[in-house]
Batch of 2 targets.
Target 1
Amino acid sequence: MKRANSKGPHKTATQCFYCAKRMAVLLCTSLILEFVAPESVFCADDGSADLPALWAAQQAAASAPTDNAMPGIPQMWVAQKAMASPGPENATLAEPPAWGAKKSYIIPAFEIIGWELMLNQFDRHFLACCDYNSNLSTIRQNLHGGWVVDSDGFTVNQLGHPYGGSMYFGFARSSGLGFGESMGYAFAGSALWEIAGEQTPPSKNDQIMTTLGGSFLGESLFRMSNLILENGDGAPSDWREASAAAVSPTVAFNRAAFGDRFHGVFDSHSPEYYSRFQAGGSSTTQNIQGSSTNVQRNEALLDYSLDYGLPGKPGYTYTRPFDYFNFQAIASSADGLESVNTRGLLVGKEYKAGETYRGVWGLYGTYDYFAPQLFRVSSTGLSIGTTGQWGVNSPVQLQGTGLLGAGYTAVGTINDAANSTDNHYGVSPQALLALRFIFGDTVSLDLTAREYFVTSLAGGATDGHDNIVRADASLTWRIYKQQAIALKYLVTRRDETTSALGAMTQSRGTIGIFYTFLGRDRFGAVDWLD
């Protein structure tokens, strides 16, 4: 027997109550799916909500018998999954959106705030220091106070802050945002930490290193992580996912936390690249310690380097920041991370000279950190320069980069015998010349030289100047396929002059032998005549 007024506009209070519950469940479910599965089938092709499809799914779920004729979340989820299952009519919906198609400005903002909250709590409870006991009073004080050049530990300032900046940058970049937008998030994240994360006055040198150094380092890590995911057929394997996560944790986090929304892989445009991994050891040939102590004569080393976007490949363009970049990191048994550095083309243009030369030139961004046991030096800066290759299909080819610019640099002594804080900050003119001579597919000779002249400009309370020179020569001989042996000589020298300490020299030279795994044939030489 049918109830009276079971259809039409006149419904009982109980029926209205069930209708209201249905609409509430429908609304809550749509909100859940927006954040948990924004790529769901309840979206039209342009990413907007497909309300007819959503209503049809709700009606189908509502038709299933329940104790009170009320559709539950499990039924709605089953209906949604049934529609999401691949089939002839919706197979295209199973494909994840292209990278950047569903970018978000809100998600990285909350990620950065959450990251800083966790970091602050960790520092409060596990570090024997009160600097992180910030509160509303210290925040107000930092907002109204001036910015200073702080005297925190060198590794924290010059390595920890840039890596933290790469995390801020990476959260935004892996949410589909561009390079410039992501740098803005790195700047904002750094300012938030300086004002609210610590109770000490905000630091100018930390803001520079976190924003610029973090962005340059972060873009290199982002590109390398996506290059790992991009190489190979079909969906990335678990091994590739794990390798990409090790390079850039922020890319892995967003891929795992937001499903297919950020599962698209950044399009590298298929750059020509050359990677090299080395494992071996070195021994000291020259050692002028200055005020340093506890220097180890021998050390084991792991060295990884990558040239990404080498000039000359037909069809490859340089329209985005870091379409060309170089990255290198060296781990040491003596002091952990011996060096990490990257340089990338921010704005540039291709050029050529006849059939034998191809190159790019423009504005480069650089981040460098070196710690050759005696002292540490770190810099982030901007340079004008060029990268190119001379020779094609010839017995000897030459690749190289030349840069000239300026940066903000810090220098500090390791294990200072005088037990003093010897950190010098300042603006520094700097130059780089890197050359690679390629002899067919058998031998390569790499020569690299850097120089930094650290002034007292913008250096806070420090005075005087430092002149830093680092040079290395590496001869690599390919033995079989991608297996090679390398001999390397490395020298780093510091000449310091201050009113307090006078003139001082520190210098360290090493020679080492390494097993080398070559990532590409012909040592990265590009053939643009094919």
Target 2
Amino acid sequence: MSDKPENDLPGGDQDQPSKMSRRDAMRLAAAASLGMAAGSLPSLASTAAAAQQPAGAGADDHVNAKLGEVAPGQLDDYYAFVSGGQTGEIRVFGMPSMREFVRIPVFNRCSATGWGLTNESLKILTQDLLPETKAFLKKRGLTTYQNGDAHHPHVSFTNGTYDGRFIFINDKANTRVARIRTDVMKCDKIVEVPNAHDVHGMRPQKYPRTGYLFCNGEHEAPVPNDGRDLENVKAYRSIFTAIDGDTMKVAWQIIVDGNLDNVDCDYQGKYAYSTCYNSEMGTTGADMMAAERDWVTIFNIKRIEDAVKAGKGTVMNGVPVLDGRHGSPYTRYVPIANNPHGINTAPDGIHVSINGKLSPTVSVMDVRLIDPLFESDADPRSCIVAEPQLGLGPLHTAYDGKGNAFTTLFIDSQVVMWNIDKAKRAFKGEKVDPIIQKLDVHYQPGHNHTSMGETKEADGKWLMSLNKFSKDRFLNVGPLKPNNDQLIYIGDGKMTLVHDGASFAEPHDVSIVRADIIKPRGLWDRNDPMWEEARQWAKKDGVVLEKDCKVIRDGKKVRAYMTSQAPTWGLDKINVKQGDEVTIFVTNIDETENVTHGLIISTYGICMEISPQMTASVTFTADRAGVYWYYCTWFCHALHMEMRGRLLVEPQKA
């Protein structure tokens, strides 16, 4: 676990000077361009002051709670960070409006921002790939993976609640984990996990802080996975991984029996726990459903840390790996009805719900009863304190912080609201029904989440059900249908469906965070580490990124430095020779929020976004002779169309 101070946050929590709004800046710039007198415009100071008024004059008066409506021009109460599933991105919604604000490219390629094309993004996508992966990709003519499967977005914690520093998300397809800075809503680190295969469940440590990211290698395979033991299933392994969230380096790994599905951890910093749906180590569906019970694997964090510190692990691909199979001092295996799926810790810090999937039950574990499992080898089932029968296909459970739980029923297409205390009483034999209400959702729900529900500050206002199918809920768009994110109001002690929201390419999971916790910047910090390499090149070439616009030739390599300020580029032409390796550095010197520029070089496959005070760069080979215009893609000014220049590529001499 990192010793980094708890208050070491990115620049998003710093006070920002008041800036002119984009609308005012554009009006003033347009007036100047057209020769209008400044005095003919309304007062910019009065306009800016009006824009800074708080959203909603009274408590929640901008939100119609029953309908989840947010008035035009008013702000949402929560950020919803939604996984983009097979697209490999994160989508940022406002709640309760369910408006989509922005998409953060992570494991995908993005034409709007140039993610996967710019030097800065390629460094993040490639620098922590495993050596064998780099070699594999190089044979295919690639530098990084071309796809991702983004599943579980989670925000970093301090003392059991969100601290707003980072968002983390896993790539199941290529066994990677990424970190996104919330101050700029950009990914800054991606690590490929060695030894494990197909990271599915991923959760940040809740206490004392994040700390660790706990990651499940879902699919078992031989270690090393180099072609030996192809059919020897007994040699297959699943591996549990802890990543340091501050350094994004793998801290340690644990080999387990069975496989690993979903993961969560406690509010005490002592245990993490993962579901297993394939204790049989089967390779077919029938094999994986053969046993009447599977299990939850519990990991003792301190014992593992002590063992790693003592050098007891076997180093594999640079990572200390411990054996956590049955009989290990580092793990315990709690039997659960077959094929459990989601595992979710309640805000009370005591109860953990393990969702049955192929059983109609949800098993409730009491974390206070885990110590005896390690200290005195108590009956593994002694930590189970409730097992309510809720319906068909329970997958995930969310909480309102008031003692109630909400579980998705995939087969029944319902969310069931139930009471934890009543479930415990029923488990002891008392004649009491823990089920409060069942609500139809449309259709086949997977994850669900309540507002702040994964923290000790769960507020019990909103529930979001992420449904795999939508069928007749929206206009038909052909055979490939959208998913359906449904918003449910729970603030009055019952569930009321208030909104359907179509969403593409399986939004797998979501974290719902109170808006005051997330503090994005309006402008980039010129000292940001994102473009440190650009600064180094500029220093070498004697260039000041913020003001110098020049082309420097270094043999067959050309570096073009220019600024952008609406509506002009610092260079109106760049002369190169066919075959040159060209790097273009662009620094946006606009100081007005929302005045973003984008550079595209026509028919060269080059694009990138340059937000205010940002530097971005791209490198390519000028292998096409001729005249190629570069132009601004993000509308920035009344003269946006005129913001263009020429790349002049001199042909090679015969």
